[in-house]
Amino acid sequence: AWALLRSSARAAALALGGVVLAVVCLDAVAWNLPARPIPPALALQQMTRGGVDAPATEEDVDSLMAATLAAAGAAPAQGTTVVWPENSVPASAHARIAAFASDNGVNIVYHTAEADGGAVYKKTVVIDASTGREALSNYKKHLAPDEEVGEPRDTANTADLSGHRATSYICYDLHYPDAVERLRGAQVAYVPLDDAAYGYLQKQFHAADIALHAAQAGTAVVAAATDGPTMAVNSNGVVVEELAGTAPGHIAVP
């Protein structure tokens, strides 16, 4: 019996070693596979002044603009897109965000809410720096279980942005398998996130779902969160840039 137990343990150890080796090899293969290029982008990580789940104020918009200028520098790469976190930018700031994008030569992606017929719909807006106008927007289809405000609405818009096909979705939508079809066809998706109310493990699950669906769709994803995960994933599902921790900061790609 002891010999049989030792033999079984040895077989299990060998099997586990084989799995680990396979994962390492597949990861190495994924890193070296050719991926579609990610256009120049910055993703900002920043909490609102009000804290977890508090909507952005005009002062928060000022802070995001200042952080954008600091991250982009005096001469941002042509066609740079800056992604802001999911933070419900007030409607009163929309016009000046568009002017800011145009004046500084950077596309801006932000999250806001829209009232329509007595209902509130959360959406992401992409401002094209070359026109100072909205290039595309998409509504949040899947609301998180703890979201008390908002109604789901299904859209899957894409647009040409600085020479590439782009789309944009919000946070919880990237958990769901239907994200694959919504991502497919775009070179890159820009995604505002807010996982601040959840713990470390939930953020890791979210990051894993984003990477998986990016690979399945063949679409890169650049995500900006209030306190993580702020990351860039290429079209093979490989995380190419990631901001460590929950403090304010940014990532830049490529």
UniProtKB/TrEMBL annotation:
Pfam families: CN_hydrolase. One of its GO terms (molecular function) is hydrolase activity. InterPro entries: C-N_Hydrolase, C-N_Hydrolase_sf. It comes from the Bacteria. SUPFAM superfamilies: Carbon-nitrogen hydrolase. Residues 38-254 form the CN hydrolase domain. Keywords: Hydrolase. This is Hydrolase, carbon-nitrogen family.
